[in-house]
Design a protein that fits this description.
- The protein is an all-alpha fold.
- It has three domains: about 15-215, Up-down Bundle (Growth Hormone, Chain: A); about 225-280, no CATH class; about 290-505, Growth Hormone, Chain: A (Up-down Bundle).
- Helix content is about 70%, strand content about 0%.
- It contains 18 helices and two strands.
- The chain has helices at about 15-35, 35-50, 65-95, 95-115, 125-150, 155-185, 190-205, 225-250, 255-275, 290-305, 305-320, 325-330, 330-340, 340-350, 355-370, 380-410, 415-445, 470-495, and strands spanning about 1-5, 215-220.
- It has a two-stranded antiparallel ribbon.
- Helix 4 (about 95-115) runs antiparallel to helix 7 and helix 8 runs antiparallel to helix 9.
- The protein is globular and about 65 Å long.
- It starts with a strand and ends in a 12-residue tail after the last helix.
Length: about 500
Amino acid sequence: MASTTPAPARTTYQGNDKLLLGIVLGVITFWLFAGTMGTVAPNILTDVNGPYSDPAAKTWTSPFVGVDAMNLAVSITALFSGMFIVVAGGLADRVGRVRISLIGNGLGILGSLMIVLATGPLALPLMLGGRAVQGLSAACIMPATMALVKTYWDGPGRQRAVSMWSIGSWGGSGLAAIFGGYVSTLVNWRWIFIASIVISVISILLLRGTPESKVAQTGEAFRFDLPGVLVFMVSMLALMIVLIFGAKIGWASPVTLGLAVVAVVGLAFLVRIERRAAKPFIDFALFANRTFTGATISNFLLNGTIGLLIVTQQLLQLAGGMKASDAGLLTLGYAVTIIAFIRLGEKLLQRFGPRQPMIWGSLIVMLAVLLLMPTNLLLGTYSWLAVAAYALFGLGLAFYATPSTDAALANLPANQAGAGAGIYKMASSLGSAIGAAISLALFTAFGTGGAAQFVGDVLINQGRTDNTALRQAAVVALAFNLVMVVIAIVSIMVTVPKGKEQAEPAK
């Protein structure tokens, strides 16, 4: 096959509101609809498995979908998005951004349909398969649609289009808990994914007829790093299974240890083969750039803190007895602050450089975690703390997002910018997947008591005591998120230059 070079700039077609609406609708199928799973997971479990066999312990004797499997379903979409976003972006450049956007929407329809049909003995394979396909859909849609925005709009029009794309992603993420909570409470959780199918169909209709956009081909052979992709995929899947099912299978069991070895050896082997590959799937040479490395690590970790939102939403429902709609409504401040202040991060970047707003944003996220940790309080008091914490969480991410992207990409050479952007976005998705998986694994493992009882020495529960284990388990999971934020701050302080000591963006 032929390699590619940038195609000549287009001279005729200009992006319009029809195309932009189709792009934004495609984007929200992941951020808004697929993003609801963490909030509505308790509703899905009770719907698929029926009434609890043990209402006090909130367990079933022989569930079609177990709690650990549900945790995997929550995390696997972001995992598959992260694993394949670089590959899908490269395919979009070669075969066409419009075509890959349409394929992504088609995959979104398939994934949502599988989830809608998840019932009875087929519930688990359909649920996991559908969530994985949703991840592939997101991997196709996100890079392809952003490339269309950059290709078919110029000047102020491009800035508006980028803002609309960002609102679709950040806004969708912020509203996911509210939307999912209300739909699952007022109608049924399956209608979330029925609505997603409708939105994908509308997106396809709006995108159809758009002139194709791709890069021009040359005579040089194109090399696809299949070994790198396969090794990475197997390693990440093994790691995810260990993280989620390790406590249930047994940390010292041959299965867990074997999968852990596969993950560690696989990732080590990946570094070796990627350094030798002519066209590596992941260009590890980029990590020689300290600023890129620090920004990417902190991006991975800050995205991982989405686990605090998922765990506390489930805590409010399982331990507090709140409806999904009421728990989701508490996250309104998260949506408002992340949308309202995302541009402020850009202004802070322009005035202070990336380092300061990245640290400030991380510190605000840390404060949000700390506010959520006193789970011993009565539900009314804790709910108000959650409202404040969710709003601060959105504010912190808004401060962090644009400066972090700039720190990662602004001083890379022009010929590394595309690869750097792919790795940075991969870190976002993988951070969300792994952070959510570990947070949920801790919450589930300690939710029956045991080792989590040590929290009682620090936080004495007020009110009900039948939910003590769940409340303490949430503290353990939140402590993990706190550690991630601390490491992110250290990473920023060590690697990102002070002030505006950034190299000029590559022209």
